[in-house]
Design a protein that fits this description.
Number of helices: 9
Low-confidence stretches: 100-109
Strand content: under 5%
Order of helices and strands: HHHHHHHHH
Distance between the termini: 54 Å
Mean pLDDT: 85
Shape: globular
Structural class: mainly alpha
Length: 225
């Protein structure tokens, strides 16, 4: 497996790992957002959906095993994505040990410049979110199996909702730049495709962010109880 190790050590290899894990994470984020929107269908629908995920794979596997396998896979993808990004950042810094005398950002967007620290915030949020909504260690009113109750009692706290919204906004920037970079890596860089790339990346990032943010906003406003 020396060739695989050598490939990963290259900038191209790290970008490939980031692209593959990024696609997996994009898919998860989209499905998770759609699942969260079942909150607006009432407690029975949301809790039934969550129970269906936990029961998936039975009787071959135990209750909840498939969900934990997916969570572990998600964390592994996040870890690979973050480590590859950090290593690529270090490689770029070593390749240019002296900073430019003058730095301009005409070609770089705010999303690209904040990609690294936005990623750090997202990782911190993922850890907190798992402890909060999955394990329940940092949720004072956590009830096993009652997802609707756990969401409502969590997001009535404005500090929890505020942290969630900030993290989702960081995720939105990350999604936008990630999709833009992914299309560029595929070679979709022609002038005819530039408009499509930007429109798709912006639309996807806005829809996913709005879907996630709708949950705490409607709970804080009292529209969902």
């Amino acid at each position: 497996m020396k060739w695989l190790r050598d490939f990963y050590r290259s900038s191209l290899g790290k970008k490939a790992v980031m692209a593959v894990t990024g696609v997996l994470l994009f898919g998860f984020v989209l499905l998770h957002m759609l699942g969260n929107l079942k909150l607006f269908m009432g407690p029975q629908k949301l809790n039934g959906y969550a129970e269906g995920l936990r029961a998936f794979g039975e009787p071959i596997l135990s209750h909840g095993d498939v969900l934990w396998i997916l969570r572990i896979g998600l964390l592994a993808a996040v870890g690979l994505h973050v480590v590859s990004a950090w290593q690529l950042r270090r490689q770029n810094a070593r390749a240019r040990p002296e900073s430019y005398a003058r730095t301009t950002h005409q070609a770089a967007t705010y999303a690209s410049r904040s990609m690294f620290w936005g990623g750090v915030l997202i990782v911190a949020f993922v850890v907190y979110h798992l402890l909060h909504m999955t394990v329940g260690n940092v949720h004072a009113e956590f009830v096993v199996g009652d997802v609707h109750h756990n969401m409502v009692t969590a997001f009535v706290n404005p500090f929890v909702s505020g942290f969630y919204i900030v993290a989702v906004l960081a995720l939105g920037f990350h999604l936008y730049h990630g999709l833009w970079s992914f299309f560029q890596s595929l070679g979709w860089t022609g002038p005819r495709l530039a408009g499509f790339r930007r429109t798709f990346a912006v639309t996807f990032a806005i829809l996913v962010s709005a879907g996630f943010i709708a949950v705490p906003v409607t709970i804080l406003s009292g529209l969902v109880r």
